[in-house]
Sequence to fold (181 residues):
Amino acid sequence: MTYLMIIEVKEKGTKEYCKEVVNVISQYRQLIKKPEAKLKDNFKSFPIWTGVMAGLFIIWLLGGIFNGFNVWTGVVLVITGLAFILLIAYQINMNKMVNAYLSDNRTSTVTLDEKGVELNKGGSQVIRVGWNDVTVVRSFKESTCFLAKNVTGFVIAVTGRYNDDIMKYLEDNHVGVRVVR
Fold:
């Protein structure tokens, strides 16, 4: 029985990996509630929704110009305009996160032991989550993620390259966490 597993992650994750991790973080609450839920690709759906909101805004604006403005037209214009702005801001933030991950040259060490999982980013950032605080270990296409139970948003992600080793460790050591593959 092995109680310690150390993964030295020296390679940088691909852009697809970084996008997947950002999607996991952005859907964190939903994945805690329903760990088996399909991970949505917000990088594809948000631009579509942004276009829909822009189209609705223009339609309502033109309707107000040609048919006269009333209170409801104003309310709808404000709501669609705000939704459009929020979607753009969210997309910008998601892209900044991906770029930050891609430009991070620090090596990572992920340690699994009898107490929990720890991510050490070049000695400057350490995140530790005990096994009793991990709600699920989820295997995705590009990554394996450890999601904390509380709503802190802590996600410890490792490239999918290490998925089999992590799953074997969890199985061999009878770690009592939910695993979704």
